[in-house]
Amino acid sequence: MLSTTEVISTLEMLQNEHLDVRTVTLGLNLMDCVSDNLNQFKNNIHRRIMDKASQLVSVCDQIGNTYGIPVVNKRISVSPVAVMGACFSADQLVQVAKTLNDAAADVQVDFIGGFTALVEKGVARGDRALIEAIPRALTETQRLCASVNVASTRAGINMDAVLMMGNTIREAARLTADQDGLACAKLCVFANIPEDIPFMAGAYLGIGEADAVINVGVSGPGVVKKAIDRALASDPELNLGQISEIIKRTAYKVTRVGELIGREVAQKLGIRFGVVDLSLAPTPNVGDSVGEIFQSLGLDSIGAPGSTAALAMLNDAVKKGGAFASSHVGGLSGAFIPVSEDLNIGEAVRKGFLNLEKLEALTSVCSVGLDMVAIPGDTSAETIAAIIADEMAIGVINKKTTATRLIPVPGKKAGDNAFFGGLLGQAPIMAVNNGARGNRFIRLGGLIPAPIHSLTN
């Protein structure tokens, strides 16, 4: 039970510490919309989204106003399009992408995810068509997000798919060169992708999910920072074990807030409640930064020696607090460290505290991976694929989710700035070791086998 003091502190989180429900995401199973007639398929998709999601935004706003807890983003995730549209060509799947985008605009959600392929063990016809369609689909839409799972602990790493994604990312950047490669900011490459992520750009509805489900993403990096600051101001002699307990209790309260809102929205819409994803996902706003938590813990900056240990403690405490608060914790639930969406992390790159290699080390203990990382525009497809492969290996070996959102910014070099706008923010372009420009290892292709600990049956 929460004490009176803790109830008051929760109210303080809402009023002054950037606590919000970052996203309510409606997951929709569209498998029964399938047709080999393209127009029929598109009509089925649009009709289903309008039927199920037309009240999503208004209900979220109503419940947010009732409780004084803002729901910042309202989103939709759908069944993987590569499965639903397996009979269509890449050009036809671009049309499907536009239908999804139009439906999202009609129901006024921020993003729609699920332009997704699952290719960890091989690339089927529909997967190949979808991957080929991604650059145009993300260029010619505004609200669509895409994801491709190229690896898993059970299957290994599909290196053919990894190289395909290197080329896909290059092409997506080229098509949006006038926007600093913006299309790439809406594309995630995963290992061990969860089926219930509410956060974009990776959200899709897994095959094993219900017809419709409400998943909630709650974020509170500012809340965690303030909790640490208050505790240390009150007792400067606190040790890391005691600080971990404070983070855990804070995560507990944040998770309860998220589940409350999620269940209210689900009940109002007559849809099943799924999971609450407690991920410390920052925004470009001052005071809403994961990077600032490292400074509260006594480090000069994220990226300084000790950062990996600090992030491991933070991630673990967040997960423990969330798991105690709810038996419906899912998605990613931990800490994001995106470069462009976090002012403090971006500043750490500019000052030289954080480079790509240190960022990769941090991803071994965080929730996602190389997130919103801008790199020089002349980075080769092989180098991009090699970076992806390294990140996938971290996920596969450690039995965790990892992902990359790499953005090669056309015409810009390391040290320049990329500007994406809105929630995506801006980012300094990080230097890349281009030793993989003619990388024969990447071009060998094939499947890197699953590790021995995948044999769990």
Overall description:
The protein has 457 residues and is of the alpha/beta class. It has a single domain, classed as Anaerobic Ribonucleotide-triphosphate Reductase Large Chain. The protein is 44% helix and 18% strand. It is built from 15 helices and 13 strands. The strands form two sheets. Strands 1, 2, 3, 4, 5, 6, 7, 8, 9, 10 and 13 form an eleven-stranded mixed β-sheet that branches. A two-stranded antiparallel sheet has the order 11-12. Strand 11 and strand 12 (426-428) form a beta hairpin. Helix 9 (240-269) packs across helix 11. The longest helix has 30 residues, at 240-269. The mean pLDDT is 89.
How many whole angstroms does the radius of gyration measure?
21 Å
Structural class: alpha/beta
Number of DSSP-assigned strands: 13
CATH fold descriptor: Anaerobic Ribonucleotide-triphosphate Reductase Large Chain
* Distinct helical segment count: 15
What best-fitting shape do the alpha-carbon axes yield? globular
How would a textbook summarize the main sheet? 11 strands, mixed
Strand content: 15-25%
What topology emerges from the helices and strands here?
Blueprint: H1 4-16, E1 20-28, H2 38-53, H3 56-67, E2 71-78, H4 81-84, H5 90-106, E3 111-118, H6 125-139, E4 144-152, E5 156-158, H7 159-175, E6 187-191, E7 212-219, H8 221-234, H9 240-269, E8 272-278, H10 291-296, H11 307-325, H12 343-350, H13 356-362, E9 370-376, H14 381-398, E10 402-409, E11 417-419, E12 426-428, H15 440-444, E13 447-448
Parallel strand pairs: 1-2, 2-3, 3-4, 4-6, 7-8, 9-10
Antiparallel strand pairs: 1-7, 4-5, 5-13, 6-10, 11-12
